[in-house]
């Protein structure tokens, strides 16, 4: 339990940031799910288009500190390889 006024303020700030980060993480996961669905459907053009937007969202989340930069890069790399495999 926070006792000082600064600790109480910190608790409020953390609660706000947690909500924002949860929202951003959910948004990223939605984009990733759309890419996965396009890949499983075998739709090459749709998968490539959705991948571009998903990559942008992932990198934005990495820039904001919601996910680690290397994690975002790894996810983009693996998804790109899977979309490229559809073209082969």
Mean pLDDT over the residues = 95
CATH topology: Methane Monooxygenase Hydroxylase, Chain G, domain 1
Biggest sheet character: none
- How do the SSEs run, as a string of H and E? HHH
Beta-sheet strand percentage? Answer: under 5%
CATH-defined superfamily: Ribosomal protein S20
* Name given to the CATH architecture: Up-down Bundle
Description:
By secondary structure, the protein is an all-alpha fold. The protein has one domain (5-87): Ribosomal protein S20 (Methane Monooxygenase Hydroxylase, Chain G, domain 1, Up-down Bundle). 88% of the residues lie in helices and 0% in strands. It is built from three helices and no strands. It has helices at 5-41, 44-64, 69-87. α1 runs antiparallel to α2 and α2 runs antiparallel to α3 (69-87). The longest helix has 37 residues, at 5-41.
Feature tags:
88 residues; single chain; Methane Monooxygenase Hydroxylase, Chain G, domain 1; mainly alpha; 3 helices
Chart the SSEs and their pairings.
Elements: H1 5-41, H2 44-64, H3 69-87
Helix pairs in contact: 1-2, 2-3
Summarize this entry quickly.
The chain is an all-alpha fold. It is built from three helices and no strands.
